[in-house]
Design brief:
It is globular and about 45 Å long. It has a seven-stranded parallel β-sheet, sandwiched between helices. Helix 7 links the parallel strand 6 and strand 7. The relative contact order is 0.17. It is of the alpha/beta class and about 220 residues long. The model has no long low-confidence stretch (mean pLDDT about 95). It has a single domain, classed as P-loop containing nucleotide triphosphate hydrolases (Rossmann fold), CATH 3.40.50. Helix 1 packs parallel to helix 4. The structure holds magnesium ion and zinc ion (ZN). Magnesium ion binds next to helix 2.
Length: about 220
């Protein structure tokens, strides 16, 4: 085994250990957690803004917003009425790891949080390798991207429980084919649940809200 691979294995096993700690802590507090992943610009923050607008009076959603630089997303989520929003600036790292999440959670009002959503750094590659203690990864793919992305970044789609096709109001403006994208994703992961929605038109949003409310047990 090369030295690089040995180091990477060590980092990941330490990450898995911390993620398991986070998971058992969240289980003890009965807080389901999802890890929202996508390439940059797929609409993670916008989806969360709409989610807060629809659900903030029904469930207390705790949010961790990861970005390489700036707290812009965290500010947007606070402005949208986020109950508890914690920014993580990775300062160059292209993914969140369990240590960052563990630190972010240290001051969190866990008693009052019904659901935790972690917005990962926009990147379809390494966030797939880093368990953050979540119940499920939710991967977003926008219709402004290529419909072959699931084939190009299979690990992410294999490890996700839900695929959300976003920006469906743009269908027809490019060659993106929703059925083809979905078929590609299901080839990689036949168990993937697929939702299609548009934050702009509102189409398909209710299914997402219902799913989150069910997850939060309300
Ligand atoms: Mg964002
Ligand atoms: Zn990375």
């Amino acid at each position: 085994m090369s030295e690089m691979i040995a180091i990477e294995k060590k980092v990941l096993s330490e990450n898995d250990r911390l993620a398991a700690e986070i998971r058992s802590r969240l289980h003890a507090e009965k807080i389901p957690a999802i890890n929202l992943v996508s390439s940059p610009g797929a609409g993670k923050t916008t989806l969360l803004e709409k989610t807060l607008a629809a659900l903030k009076t029904k469930i207390n959603i705790g949010l961790i917003a990861g970005d390489v630089q700036t707290e812009n997303d965290a500010q947007r989520l606070l402005a949208a009425g986020g109950f508890w929003v914690k920014p993580i600036i990775t300062g160059g790292a292209c993914h969140l790891d369990a240590r960052m999440v563990s630190t972010a959670l240290s001051g969190a009002p866990l008693d009052a949080i019904d659901l935790l959503i972690i917005e990962n750094v926009g990147n379809l590659v390494c966030p797939s390798s880093y368990d953050l203690g979540e119940e499920m990864k939710v991967v977003l793919l926008s219709t402004a991207e290529g419909d072959d992305k699931p084939l190009k970044y299979p690990a992410m789609f294999r490890r996700a429980g839900i695929l959300v096709l976003t920006k469906i109001d743009l269908v027809g403006l490019s060659d993106f084919d929703m059925d083809r994208a979905q078929a590609n994703a299901l080839r990689i992961n036949p168990d993937l649940q697929v939702m299609r929605l548009s934050c702009r038109s509102g189409d398909g949003m209710q299914q997402w809200f219902d799913w989150l409310q069910q997850l939060a047990g309300r």
